[in-house]
Amino acid sequence: VLKGKELDALSVEELASIEPFPTVFARVSPEDKMKIVHALQSRSEVVSMTGDGVNDAPAIRHADVGVAMGITGTDLTKEAADIVLTDDNFNAIVHAIAEGRRIRDNIILFLVYLLSCNSGEIWTMLACVAGGLPAPFTSLQILWGNLIIDMPPSLALGVQPAAPNVLTRLPRNPDEGVFTWKTGLFTLLQGFSLGCLAVTVYVLDFVGFGYSVLKPNTDEYINGLLKAQAHCFITICLMQLSQAF
Fold first, then answer.
1. What is the pTM of this model?
2. What pLDDT shows up at residue 37?
3. Using CA atoms, how far apart are residues 138 and 232, in angstroms rounded to an integer?
4. Distances (CA, A) of 144 to 35, 125, 141, 229, 242
5. How far are the Cα atoms of 66, 132, 171 from residue 23, in angstroms, in the given order?
6. Fewer Cβ atoms within 10 A, N terminus or C terminus of the chain?
7. Is the CB of residue 11 less than 8 Å from the CB of residue 38?
């Protein structure tokens, strides 16, 4: 416990160096609240400050997350805050944290799913063109895949409930973006796996059954190409749906 008079005699650096750091501050002034915020931030802590009065506004403004009371709080405090508790109930902060984590998780799922599905189609097209084969998808198939196959599962992923451990897991790094290198690598590997399977089906169908050596203008060649494209399209669509689950 540290009282306001004792706090006034300490600088921000001296306060930050106290071990263990005080957990209760009594009879503090608005300037003391600012000092506490800066001391905790210098220790690489993420600081949340709650308040309702005008004197609390500076500390709420400088905290990483400022929380104001919606009923008893002043207009200035609400303007300075990041979160306004409409019912002045601290339990609402817990629900806000859970909802924020759920939204972030769903955004990542949404991005990973869509980017990996689209990259799988790109890998398939690139591999076939590089191998001198006809395009494995028609433009209509690509449009159908993006609008009908990809969008409903991605929308479902965007609104799914929170994970059971949403409040028990450790907090993430505040400087960490939504799309990290791990997420990027995971997306790349998923898209590459989709592309490899689709290309394998297409090559086995179009080349394995001998359609690729036929004359392009013949009916047998065209029918073989259409069949191979259909099988490739069905394969990547089923894989994308399986990936969503």
1. 0.78
2. 95
3. 11
4. 58, 16, 5, 14, 17
5. 19, 69, 20
6. C
7. no
- Reference 225, options 121, 141, 102; nearest CA is 141
Is 80 exceeded by the pLDDT of residue 213?
Answer: no
Predicted local confidence at residue 195, as pLDDT: 94
Q: Is the pLDDT confidence value at 240 over 90?
A: yes
Residue with tokens 């190409």: 225
**Residues 41-46: what's their mean pLDDT?**
92
- Write the pLDDT tens digit of every residue in 175-203: 888 888 889 999 999 999 999 999 999 99
- Beta-bridged to residue 83, according to DSSP, are 67
The answer to whether the beta carbons of residues 102 and 162 sit under 8 Å apart is: yes
**Token digits of residue 177:** 């973006």
User: For residue 61, which amino acid is it?
Assistant: R
Measured over the CA atoms of residue 21, residue 24, residue 27 and residue 28, the dihedral's sign is positive
Nearest residue to 28 via CA among 15, 17, 45, 46: 15
Cβ proximity of 123 and 137 under 8 Å: no
Query: Tell me, what amino acid is at 23?
Result: T
